[in-house]
Model the fold of this input.
Amino acid sequence: MTTWLILGGSSAMARALARAVASRGDAVILAGRDAGDLAATATDCRLRGAPLAEAVAFDARDPAGFPALLARLEATEGTVNVAIFVGSMPPQAEIDADPALIDGVIADSFTGPVRLLTLLAPLVEARKGTVVGVGSVAGDRGRIGNYAYGAAKAGFATYMSGLRNRLTRAGAHAVTVKPGFVDTAMTWGIEGMFLVAPPERVAADILKAVGKRRDVIYTPFFWRYIMLIIRHVPERIFKKMSV
Amino acid sequence: MQTRRLDLTGWGRVLRATSDVARPERFSTLARAMEEAPAPAMGQRRSYGDAPLNDKGRALDMTRLDRILGFDEEAGILTVEGGARIGELNALLAPRGWLLPVLPGTGFATVGGAVAMDVHGKNHHHAGSFGQHLAGIRLLTPKGEKRAGPDKQKDLFRATLGGLGQTGVVASAEIRLLKAKGSVMMVTEHRIRDWDEHIAALDTSEATYSVGWIDATATGAGLGRGILEEGETGAGLVPPAKRGRKVPIDAPGAALSPPVVRLFNAAYWRRVPMRGRTVVKPIEDFFFPLDRIYDWNRLYGKRGFHQFQCVVPLGQRDRLRDILETVAQSGAASPLAVLKRMGPGRAGMMSFPMEGYTLAVDLRAAPGPESLVARLEGMVRDAEGRIYLAKDSLGSAEAIQAMYPERKAWAKIVAKHDPEGALATDLVRRLKLRETE
Done:
């Protein structure tokens, strides 16, 4: 049996992934802060076919709770996969007004997840699992609109690359996922969104990538080309752009 | 809560609205939205007219709150969030031997919408309406959270079933399921030559599920010609239902023009052999035949269409024949007309069903069907019948109000729970349904 630990389980993308793996018959442990919401998704997953689905508490800013997650996973049998959907993106203007907000962004999107992953890595290696790290296209280049968040996601992507290097040696794996605009509460009603993908599409792309042991995916796929262009704009031009 | 300005329509795509829409993904955000700025809920907007619309106002999109919250297998009670789609629930339940007690004509309808319209299905003559199978609902009213059911908050419960979303937002509902034999339907189809044969066949049918399809282009001796479908659930293997297809563009006006529709209907009728036949179908093909074409409403072109559905008491069947004749002679060319016998079952004060016969027809938006609908409305009223508010887009306040005898009492209960009128929709305003005087 395969067990998925899904961190940030209340997000629309995480919920879509949880449902998709539940209907394949995998077990699901949903971790996050909104216990009531996670319990509802867990029940939903059980009725969709998960042999086990439960909610556990997880706060990226509180590492004291991390060992309990490891202990819970150690009590399972079979493959252990970990999917990370945590992150927070306050508007850059709010961060500029209150620089202390950066600590939270970095903890939610970078330091919290990587500390937990470092703790879980030996178990993932032993159980030949896969880590799915959901970053963002925002991490590919610092942009005026969200560069604090982008910086955290860039750090996360670099960590994922190193983790993949490590896990591969043990026969385990790590997939870096870079979604473009996804139709979630985070993007709802925000100006300037285009080519917005449904969360179910992202979940399907993730599962395909896990199955094929892909290293880095953009979802939907065309973001690879959009970001290819954006990454190659010379800095002396890019610094004047507001994309 | 973050909102998004959207241009919206009902399923018929004639009536339009621009609203600021919030789309909560968790119960806690829904509850906060209802505290801060209560607004009418909308689901998949499968009501044809303006029932789901709130022009120049706010709305709550419920489609992300679509989880199963519990299933008591002993009691057969399923608890689901209001945004869950009927068809998706059916697909999950049928392989486990359970069936929703009432399935409306589209699986895209949400549970919240089914509550707000107290929908009926092809088994209405036996099973009654959707609301009659609810063990309880969790309602977020502008005055706070309420739990209502057959034994608690009975007035609020009766005002909510078929209550057009005016008492509050359906956060979740507890539905009593039926045991099913399996996930296929045994469907018997009979060719029906005319109106009298159609009525007689519906009257004598002993099937659990029955529905009559009428070729609404047939006039004269062939009036009422069609196919009677009778269904029973069964176990067995059939090929899985085909994946949904999409209509790529708004069809040109000619696609459903009278000659095309006449040809199609004649061929469709002859498809069933004279002596009838029995076929095995996937369950969703029987209950949601049109869902296979995801956005079939685009077949009517840019201008959209209206639907008209009424019910008349058993003794008024001749007047229903007159109504069908009026539609057939108008050349409004509806490819789809449905005739069903209804039982007396209804759950709420504003529920549509009454014991009798119900007829549903599509009417193209051009040329204007306003005068036709006004005429039909008068005929329904004379027949002591009722027009279905989930379908209505052209009714008049005076006539519709006369068809719903409990409306005033309902409006008073609604006023108690939503005194500011925050949940009013375009339909409710157009038909002045919430006036208490």
User: Anything to note?
Assistant: Chain A has one domain: 2-238.
